[in-house]
Each structure stands twice: as structure tokens, then as C-alpha cells.
Amino acid sequence: MFPSTRLRRYRKSKELRKMFSQPFPGSEKFVWPVFVIEGRNREIPIAAMPGQSRMTVDVLIKRLEPVVKSGIGGIMIFGVVENFQKSLDGSYSYRKDGVVQKAIREIRRNYPGLVIFTDVCLCAYTKHGHCGILDKNGDVENDRTLVSLAKMAVSHAQAGAHSVAPSAMMDGQILAIRNALSKAGFNDTLLMSYSTKFASNFYGPFRDAAASKPGKGDRKGYQASFRNLKIALKESVEDEKEGADILMVKPALCYLDIISKVKEKTLLPVAAYNVSGEYSMIIACAERGWGDLNGMAKESLMAISRAGADMIISYWANRYENIFLDKT
Ligand SMILES: [Zn+2]
Predict the structure, then answer these.
(1) Using CB atoms within 10 A as the burial measure, which of 81, 201, 220, 273 is most buried?
(2) CA angle 104, 241, 180 (to 5 degrees)
(3) Residue 259 Cα, ligand 1 centroid: separation in angstroms?
């Protein structure tokens, strides 16, 4: 017998394939994570993340020009500081003249239409590299850390950030930051929570970029376990109750099921963070001649979008036009 259902009819020509295809996510759905350093006219390529660098603010302003022209929606700022600026409590993170605060002001001045997100976490600013303040046993002290995270978020809002994005995975961080923002008069600042952030093996290249590797131990004590689905989902549910405006799943590619499940449980926008390891492994594969770079990038971004992500935070964002040049 021959088949009566012939799905190949939908794919017969390029034109038919296009007609029946879901659209690719537009450039406005993308947020580009960037690493800013102190000083002027310096750009240090990140070996583990080809195509990405640590930049001083003046260089970033130049690099942003074509990226903004491509229509990307936003930028996510990470600060990278020198060792002498790090401390046990990470207090550099909420200085008015800190590197992130300066970057926010400059970006707003040059690109008023670009949505500015800032990462809110202490790990790039603490000597020990953990995401919070340690107690005498070396454990991260949740509630003392909340106070510092709130100060950091308010300082970013004061500098002009449109959205603050806490990533420390402390219990109650959304509520603490929401209250602090309201008290300081920032009722319109969006709060994007890294609500379900896993203790992942895919963060390696980022830690090189941000110089934020913990000196001792790991982050399994506060980041979600990829072997506990229910608690991972509850993290996002709780953050919504605490007042988050946007939820996030991080990483993205190994967690497409989680993106879909979080999406089913909320009416809030869901962001996905396509992390450094997910980016670098595609580049490494292409460099060995084992696959087409843009094709693999496009397919992975489409998967994240199809899983339900409304916004995609990705290192591919600064080459959106190359990746999606061929719209088929
Ligand atoms: Zn952190």
C-alpha cells in the first residue's frame, strides 16, 4: 500500500517550506550579555568565547553601534573588576561610580532606545567568588546577602537601568529587591529574576570572562539541582509571587523542558539564558569542521524560542544578522 498522508507535500519547495514555517525570533527578542572593565580604550578578547570580549565602556559604545542597528532589544551588563576592588562583602558592587553604573549612564546617553538589563549578584565582587556574604563556616548567609543585593539593584536603577536581574539564587531576593526599589522611588524598574538557575557545568567559559569562579567549593548549595524538577519549578513560582516581572530559565539548551513547563505555569514573560558553554561548544564544533556555525546557532536559537522563551539572552545576539541572513 502507498501512503495517503504525504507530509512531504508541505516541504516540496522552498516557497512552501517558508509558508508553513514558524517565524524565527526577531532581533528585538534578543539581549546581548557584555562584560565591562574599568579604564579607556581596552578590549580583551575572551579566549573561551570567540567573538566576545571584555571591554571598557568607550569601546563598548563603539561595538554597540552595528548591534543596535540590527535591532536587538537589549543588553545585559556584567561588571568585571580588579582583585584589589574585591572584598569579603562585595561592596564595590553598589558604588555610584562603579564600572556597571558608569556603563549604564553612557549607554543610555548614546543609545536611548536600547533596554538595559543589569546582572545583580556579588560573585564578581567578592574575594572568595561566592554569590553572597559568607558566615564563619564558609556558607553563604542568605539574609545578609539580601541587603547587599538590594543596595546593588537600587544603585543600578539610580544609574538608569531599565531592568535589574538578580542571579544569586538567594531565597527572598525578589521581595527584598522589589521593596528596596519601591522605597527608593523606582516603581517602574522591571525585575527580571534568574528564577530557575541551575548549578550547571555549562558556565565554564563565563567564569573565565567574569573572573567569578569560586575560590573554594561550588554553588550547588544555592543554585538549583538539575535532578530535582519540582523544586526547580517552584523556584520560578515563588519568584512570581514575590513580585518578579520576568522569569528566566538558565541554561537554555539542556533545559528546554523546563522552559516549556515554566511557561505553562505562568502568564509572565519567560526569558531563557543561552549560556557561555552552549555558545562555545557550537563554535568549537564548527572550528573543527564538524558543522556549519550559523546553521547550528540558528537551529539552537529556534529550539529555545519554540520551547516557549519570549526573550533570549544570548552571545549570538551581536551577530544576529549573520545567523538569520538566510531566512529559510
Ligand atoms: Zn553569582
Answers:
(1) 273
(2) 40
(3) 21
CB distance 236 to 266 below 8 Å: yes
- Per CATH, the homologous superfamily of domain 24-323 is Aldolase class I (3.20.20.70)
- Separation in Å, CA 75 to CA 33, 216, 302: 6, 31, 20
3-state secondary structure 155-221: HHHHHCCCEEEECCCCCCHHHHHHHHHHHCCCCCCEEECCCEEECCCCCHHHHHHHCCCCCCCCCCC
Question: Which protein residues have their CB within 5 A of the ion that is ligand 1?
Answer: 121, 123, 131
What does residue 35 show for φ and ψ, rounded to 5 degrees? -115, 120
pLDDT digit string (tens) for 271-307? 999 999 999 999 999 999 999 999 999 999 999 999 9
Number of separate helices (H) and strands (E) present in the chain:
11, 11
Which grid coordinates are listed for 260?
A: 516549556
Where exactly are the structural domains of the chain? 24-323
Collapsing DSSP to helix, strand or coil, 101 comes out as helix
Residue corresponding to grid cell 536600547 = 114
pLDDT at 1: 86
Ligand 1 centroid – CA 319 distance (Å): 26
Active-site residue numbers? 197, 250
pLDDT tens string 186-216: 999 999 999 999 999 999 888 877 777 777 7
